[in-house]
Structure formats: C-alpha cells, structure tokens
Amino acid sequence: MNSTRRLVMLNQMAGPLFRQLAEGMAEIYPDGVKLVTGHPDALVCSSKVNQKLQVVTAVPYNRRSYFHRFFSWIRYLLNASGNILFAKKGDVFLLASNPPLLAPWIWLLCFIKPVRYAVLIYDIYPDVLEELKILDRHSFVARSWRALNRKVYRRAKVLITIGYRMASRMERQFGIPVEVVHPWVDIHKIIPIARDKNPHATKFINQDDFVVLYSGNLGASHDIDSILSAAEILRPHKTIRFIFFGDGEKRNAVESYIQRFPNQNVRLFPFQPEGLLSYTLSLADVSLVTLDKGMEDLMVPSKFFSYLAAGSAILGIAHDNSELSNLIDSQGCGIRVPPGCPDKLAKILLMMSKDTKVLNNFKRQARVLAELKYAKEVGVKSFKKIIASQLA
What we know:
- The chain is of the alpha/beta class.
- The chain folds into 2 domains: 7-184 and 375-390, Rossmann fold, CATH 3.40.50; 195-373, 3-Layer(aba) Sandwich (Rossmann fold).
- Helix content is 44%, strand content 15%.
- Strand 4, helix 4 (102-109) and strand 5 (116-121) form a beta-alpha-beta unit.
- Helix 1 (16-25) packs across helix 16 (376-390).
- The longest helix has 20 residues, at 66-85.
C-alpha cells in the first residue's frame, strides 16, 4: 500500500454505509481518505470520528423533481471534476453510482488526467430509468449510456455491487467480473429500544399503537400506493398506525391520504437526523420495504438491514426472484407479499398485530441476523479486502 497515498471517495449522497466505509478505508491508506459529498449528516460528523478522514462539502442531492435531481447531478459533477483534474500523484478513486453520470464523467476526464478508480454500484443505470419509463430502452440516449458504461467499467480496477442478482445482470451485460458486498448496519448505533424507554416515542406514536413503519425515500419505484390502500382497509382497527419518515415523488400520495382521512391511521414526518435513527426505527412492530416489478435485479434496499438491527419484523413488498425476496424468504425475519396486493398486505398486518408469538419470533430473528451476518465490521472488512487487493 505504500505506493498509494490517498483514497478519494465520490458520492453525492454518502449516507451511513458509505461514510462508515470511508472511516474504515482511512485506516489502510497512508494519507487517509477524502470524501466528497453533499449529504448533511456526513458533513456534520465524519471528520470528528477519524482524523485521517477529510470530508469535503459538495452540492446536495435535490429530490424535489426530476429536473431538480438532474440539475443537482450536473452541479455535483462539476464539484467532482476538480478532484480529478488536480489529483495528487498516487491518488486513487472510489466512485459511487450516485449521481448516475458520475462514473462516465470521470472516465471522460481520464483522457485529460488519467487516474485509477473503482466503481461501487448501488443502482444499475440506465436500466432503472428504463423500468420507470423515464427513458426508452431503445433510445439513442439509453444505447449510448450503456455503451459508455462498458468502457467505464472495463477501465475500472474493480466493480463492486451490493447484491448477487445485480452482479449477475452486470456480468451478463458487460462480460466483466463483479464483486459483491451486501449492505451492512452499525449494530452498536442502531439497536432495539423498548417503547417505554424511548424518549422520542410520544412525538410520533401512541404507546399502545401497533406501528407499521416506512422509513426512507418515497420514490417512484416503491409501491406506496399498496401501503396506503392497505391502510385504508385497516382504518377500523384503531390501534394499527402507519408511520412514514421520508420524502420523494410519492410524498404527495401520502399527503393526499392524510387530507382524505385526517387524524386517522397514517402519519407523515420528514427525514429525521441520523442521530435519531435508532429511536425512530425502534418504534416499529413491522417495517415495510418495497421493490417494484422490474427492479428485482437493479437494486437492494439498504433500509432492510437497518430494520434488522432495530429488531423489527419485516414485511417485504416484492416479487419472486429478487434479492429482497431471497433475503426475506430464506432468513425467517418476516413475510413477503407481491406488489399491488393491498388486501393481502392488510390481512398479514392484521394477523401480525394479533399473533404476538409470530411477531416476536420475527423480531428476534431480525436482530440475530444483523449481528451475525450484516454487522458493519463484517461488511467493511470484506470491502477493505477487495479494495486493498485491486486498488493498491
């Protein structure tokens, strides 16, 4: 490693996983790690954790509309450009798939200033945009983007993604080996907290509520409509409460439900500070995680692993043959239903609210899985091994 001075990590929204990775990688690079991000939590706390980690402020991600997203992506690319063009001798780069155009842009800049890089792929683009019908699969843009990806990935020292089905899809598309490291969770920061010991509980719920939690991006690829339809079915059951923390394109759907049924069984709150995450996730009896049809091979919801650490039963909304369905079906931490089945979703939630034995078994197994298989120490160690061998 002596030939490598510093790792520069580029990710517009470096959430807890990416930041924890940056902290871990700082230990093995002589001149530490430089993290360039617009994530507010990363900007607040990371540099205080490890003196070898330098956090640099960049343009934040703007979810308000597709236009605002694209504009924030372009602004971040301009931020990232200086890090490439003025890179120090021996600097190496880890590029995330957020924003989606980052890796192709860096590849183009390498004609001016060659650097070594690896790519960490959270979501596969342009495939995600094609499934969302934002981009036509046969359009010039989509075909050009995919052709450019082939060049980007073949130049990379290593490709890493967060699911085996994602890796298989990429290997079929590009004929390049892809490493897999599942998302992880800090099991020391996110822990089960009993409701009567949770000082923030009364801000969000009543003590006797059966809480169904959705926490995270209310994105276009998430089956929020089925959740709201299930909530409407369950309105007569006064103690079953749906709590949403987050923002995104489908926030309006949640707000519309609340306008139709004010002071009823759905509550919506903005994203909470990261320091409150253990308290908010622990509110849940059941946590919801969704993956719409067509996304089976394109993403793995990282919130699933945080739910496990909080000791929540999982109710997954996903088709067969997805990474999410494989995780839920094989590990005894919850139940899965297909998207677009609100009646079935409501029936299962009602059953779980009444059968405490089943519910508590799911909760215990969730926490055990987090501790044994998805702890931060396990994931970061695997990632460090790959990077140290390929980007030395």
